[in-house]
């Protein structure tokens, strides 16, 4: 390793208040791809709370032309530039700074700051991109009012946008034009945005509940106006929902969404000017799947909801990131659930959330990058936009609602805004609002923010037939994580119900509980290391349904018998636990089968019991159940989730075992699968609504089972669906099924490419399907990289092929010869020269390297060391690989 160039670690405990507070910022841009001039006038004053009289500004990749303080140009001796800090010592109390800098957007491939995408200008400032545009105290606790003047060539950049309201626009000499924007709200610099582009928009005047009229716009490149309806509809739904559920109104007269093809993340909540990855805006039935539609609704909602949870109330520092992200993810989850509107639809969204946690967050919490929801330190903040901060953070917010009830949660939200509107605050302030508004002691709940790792809740039960008592004994523990060897008990809401022998919910009587008399689910509050909960008047030994609705982000241990799981799988009124029972039944078998493959080297000896198959058959044909639920219940745990259950991961054995199970189910249920395939067609015009999408999901799952080991008849079904599909969901599903069937899918892939080569987002799908195909080895990926449509510069494209191989094709990525690890190292290094944020995400594919067999481990370590030994690594990648290699 290279201690000399180790980047510094930043600690939460080192927070100090800003020395100067900014009142107004006036920005002038002369936009030119090769040489953009930025003039910046900052009016600031000394912060009485700070002992320091030094003005501290951040700046990166900037060429400083002039720096004036209160009208006087400063000589180079009057300030200091060290790394990315510009310091002016001994400044007066009232300061007007005028700063002129140059930057080169065309060379900005990191997509942070001001950059060019397809010939137009866009910005991305979160977390620390504003400092790549101008010198500024680029920290979220410095909030100011912005006025922005944009000047650019009119023919090339006919549309000039920034935050807030357009107050002036007009012509300039030399074919240039200008637009002046003013944002009436104070904001941190990370919410600044500009767009100068050749775009068109769908727009609409929309009347708020209060009667005020606002202008809504969705801006896209020419040729995409046929793909903006769903984003616009989702925006209107979001506005309405936040009014109704939280009493929060849009505070601007104009709200804009802009889609851009080159973007590091999903989207960005810049005040009044949300900038989106095209993936989360553009949709029509021809090019977008049901999952794409759901993603658009969720992300449009997410960014819109940030206007209150993030923008009006923002973060004091980046350690508090989950204050806005966890809360806003929770809000977008609730929005999506409410948009479906049915209990079963709500349960389906909840199951999806549990799957994401298990697939990505639990592994993160158990790996080298484990961190608390509110981290204590980081090297590069961009590495902490994680599933822990987002999804586990949302679980933490959800637990307030579980503990306080919906009304109590709403009271807490109201108090949070009453106290903190216009402020930059901490996670503790949110917790205090929830506690104070409800008169509750939530001090222990703080540990959800400060302790990393996934808690394990272990349950035992005992039944006393004489006294008619049923006891549930809950205990908790949490594995050690980096820097946190010992954990204190969490405050865990554990929702519980009891099923009788007929599968009916028993009415509950919890000793010492104050729940309603007819309750069939109660929330147990586990706060100690171990606690006993007693249910009275229980006439028979019940089957406990524990952790209903996944009431806490924990691993639940309970020694269920197969019979008990089958009982829950048939009857649990809680759909999440009903699904969970099926997952437990499947996981038990998958682990046994995997062990057998590891021991015997092949699948010849494997067997699957008829009990499990019959349970699956019964569920598949139960038409009283939502198709969407049946689909989720029939999907086996993913290879990644199976791997997480193993001491020593054998990726090929997992794949073989899971495929065996899929093949066996497919053969045994062939008749029913075909019948359900036929019964769940969605003829007529495409609609992305939850019921239709659920039918397609179930139908396409049936298809995939039928195609594991297809005969001519099944192949024909898939081919016909591919040829005749009226929408991308069905077309893509048919193609994936054909690819996975093991036959020659090349003609279909070719036809698909020809049909969609001009639709970038569909070309991404085309790469992604191939990357995750069982037959795609590293040589095939290298070959795909030679395809003219492939480029590492576009994050969506890089992710579609490279990430879907490293993360979505474990059996090939972990090929015994280690060739894919060498490929990974090569790509991390190459990407790091283009876009460190994307490179660091790829670097994380190696997080779990210590869990593989020694021979693989050694090769993974070599690859990590090869990356770590590079002389010019970004902080982003360096942090990830050094943490992976640390003990
Ligand atoms: N705040 C954004 C969101 O959650 C996240 C985001 C968008 C982001 N672009 C980014 C974070 C670039 C870091 C870097 O909606
Ligand atoms: Zn967000």
TrEMBL record:
Q: Is Hydrolase one of the keywords?
A: yes
Positions the record marks as coiled coil are: none
Domain (Peptidase M1 alanyl aminopeptidase Ig-like fold) spans: 453-559
Taxonomically, the superkingdom here is Bacteria
- The name under which this protein is listed is Aminopeptidase N
- Keyword match Protease: yes
| Natural source organism | Duganella fentianensis
SUPFAM superfamilies hit by this protein? Leukotriene A4 hydrolase N-terminal domain, Metalloproteases ('zincins'), catalytic domain
- Catalytic reaction equation(s): Release of an N-terminal amino acid, Xaa-|-Yaa- from a peptide, amide or arylamide. Xaa is preferably Ala, but may be most amino acids including Pro (slow action). When a terminal hydrophobic residue is followed by a prolyl residue, the two may be released as an intact Xaa-Pro dipeptide
Q: What Pfam families has UniProt attached to this entry?
A: DUF3458, DUF3458_C, Peptidase_M1, Peptidase_M1_N
Enumerate the cofactors the protein uses.
Zn(2+)
Domain Peptidase M1 membrane alanine aminopeptidase: start-end pairs: 230-448
| UniProt cross-references to CDD domains, sorted A to Z | M1_APN
Domain called Peptidase M1 alanyl aminopeptidase C-terminal: residue spans:
562-886
GO molecular function terms attached to this record? alanyl aminopeptidase activity; metallopeptidase activity; zinc ion binding
Q: Give the protein's biological function.
A: Aminopeptidase N is involved in the degradation of intracellular peptides generated by protein breakdown during normal growth as well as in response to nutrient starvation.
Q: Where is the Aminopeptidase N-like N-terminal domain?
A: 27-191
Q: Kindly state which keywords UniProt assigns to this record, in alphabetical order.
A: Aminopeptidase, Hydrolase, Metal-binding, Metalloprotease, Protease, Zinc
Q: What is its EC number?
A: 3.4.11.2
The major lineage groups are: Bacteria, Pseudomonadati, Pseudomonadota, Betaproteobacteria, Burkholderiales
């Amino acid at each position: 390793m290279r201690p000399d160039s180790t980047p510094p670690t930043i600690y939460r405990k080192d927070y100090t208040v800003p020395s100067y507070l900014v009142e107004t910022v006036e920005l002038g841009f002369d936009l030119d791809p090769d040489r953009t001039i930025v003039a910046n006038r900052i009016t600031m004053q000394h912060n009485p709370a700070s002992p320091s009289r030094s003005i501290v500004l951040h700046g990166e990749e900037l060429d400083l032309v002039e720096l004036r303080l209160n009208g006087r140009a400063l000589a180079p001796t009057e300030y200091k530039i060290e790394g990315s800090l510009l310091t002016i010592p001994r400044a007066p109390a009232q300061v007007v700074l005028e700063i002129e800098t140059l930057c080169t957007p065309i060379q900005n491939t990191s997509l942070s700051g001001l950059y060019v995408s397809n010939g137009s200008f866009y910005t991305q400032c979160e977390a620390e991109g504003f400092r790549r545009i101008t010198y500024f105290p680029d920290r979220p606790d410095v909030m100011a009012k912005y006025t922005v003047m944009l000047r650019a060539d009119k023919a090339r950049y006919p549309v000039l946008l920034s935050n807030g309201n357009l107050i002036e626009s007009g012509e300039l000499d030399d074919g240039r034009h200008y637009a002046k924007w003013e944002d009436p709200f104070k904001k941190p610099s990370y919410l600044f945005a500009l767009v100068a582009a050749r775009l068109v928009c769908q727009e609409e005047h929309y009347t708020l509940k209060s009667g005020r009229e606002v202008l809504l716009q969705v801006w896209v490149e020419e040729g995409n106006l046929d793909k903006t309806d769903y984003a616009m509809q989702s925006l209107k739904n979001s506005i309405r929902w936040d009014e109704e559920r939280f009493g929060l109104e849009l505070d601007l007269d104009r709200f804009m969404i802009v889609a851009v093809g080159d973007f590091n993340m999903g989207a960005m909540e810049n005040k009044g000017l949300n900038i989106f990855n095209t993936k989360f805006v553009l949709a029509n039935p021809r090019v977008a799947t049901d999952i794409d539609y759901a993603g658009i609704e969720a992300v449009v909602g997410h960014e819109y909801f940030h206007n209150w949870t993030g923008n009006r109330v923002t973060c004091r520092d980046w350690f508090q990131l989950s204050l806005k992200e966890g809360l806003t993810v929770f809000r977008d989850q609730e929005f999506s659930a409410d948009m479906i509107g049915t209990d079963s639809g709500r349960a389906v969204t909840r199951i999806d959330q549990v799957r994401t946690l298990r697939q990505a967050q639990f592994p993160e919490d158990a790996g080298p990058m484990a961190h608390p929801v509110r981290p204590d330190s980081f090297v590069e903040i961009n590495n902490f936009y994680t599933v822990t901060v987002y999804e586990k953070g949302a679980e933490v917010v959800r637990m307030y609602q579980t503990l306080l009830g919906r009304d109590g949660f709403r009271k807490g939200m109201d108090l949070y805004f009453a106290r903190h509107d216009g402020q930059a605050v901490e996670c503790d302030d949110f917790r205090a609002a929830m506690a104070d508004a409800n008169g509750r002691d939530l001090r222990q709940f703080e540990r959800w923010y400060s302790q990393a790792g996934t808690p394990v809740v272990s349950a035992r039960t005992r039944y006393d037939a004489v006294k008619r008592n049923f006891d549930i004994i809950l205990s908790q523990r949490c594995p050690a994580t980096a820097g946190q060897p010992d954990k204190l008990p969490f405050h865990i809401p554990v929702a519980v119900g009891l099923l009788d022998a007929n599968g009916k919910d028993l009415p509950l009587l919890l000793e010492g509980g104050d729940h309603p008399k007819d309750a069939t689910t109660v929330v147990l509050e586990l706060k100690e290391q171990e606690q006993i909960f007693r249910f009275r008047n229980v006439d028979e030994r019940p089957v406990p349904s524990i952790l209903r609705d996944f009431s806490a982000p924990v691993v639940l241990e309970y020694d269920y018998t197969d019979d008990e799981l089958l009982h829950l799988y048939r009857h649990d009124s809680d759909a999440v636990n009903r699904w969970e029972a099926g997952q437990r039944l499947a996981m038990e078998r998958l682990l046994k089968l995997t062990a057998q493959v590891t021991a015997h080297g092949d699948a010849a000896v494997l067997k699957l019991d008829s009990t499990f198959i019959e349970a699956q058959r019964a569920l598949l044909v139960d038409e009283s159940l939502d198709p969407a639920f049946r689909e989720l219940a029939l999907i086996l745990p993913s290879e990644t989730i199976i791997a997480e259950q193993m001491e020593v991961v054998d990726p090929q054995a997992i794949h073989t075992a899971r495929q065996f199970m899929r093949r066996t189910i497919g053969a045994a249920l062939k008749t029913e699968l075909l019948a359900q395939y036929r019964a769940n067609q969605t003829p007529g015009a495409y609609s992305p609504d939850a019921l239709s999408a659920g039918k397609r999901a179930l139908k396409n799952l049936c298809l995939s089972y039928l195609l594991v080991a297809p005969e001519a008849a099944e192949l024909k079904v898939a081919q016909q669906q591919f040829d005749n599909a009226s929408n991308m969901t069905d077309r893509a599903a048919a193609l994936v099924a054909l690819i996975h069937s093991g036959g020659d899918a090349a003609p279909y892939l070719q036809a698909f490419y020809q049909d969609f080569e001009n639709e970038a987002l569909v070309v991404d799908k085309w790469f992604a399907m191939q990357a995750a195909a069982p037959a795609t080895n590293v040589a095939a990926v290298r070959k795909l990289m030679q395809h003219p449509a492939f480029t590492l510069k576009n994050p969506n494209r890089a992710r579609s092929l490279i990430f879907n191989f490293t993360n979505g094709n474990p059996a090939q990525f972990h090929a015994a010869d280690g060739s894919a690890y060498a490929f990974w190292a090569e790509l991390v290094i190459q990407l790091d020269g283009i876009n460190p944020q994307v490179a660091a995400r790829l670097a994380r594919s190696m997080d779990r390297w210590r869990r593989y067999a020694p021979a693989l481990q050694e090769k993974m370590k070599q690859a990590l060391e090869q990356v770590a030994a590079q002389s010019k690594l970004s902080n982003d990648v360096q942090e990830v690989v050094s943490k992976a290699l640390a003990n």
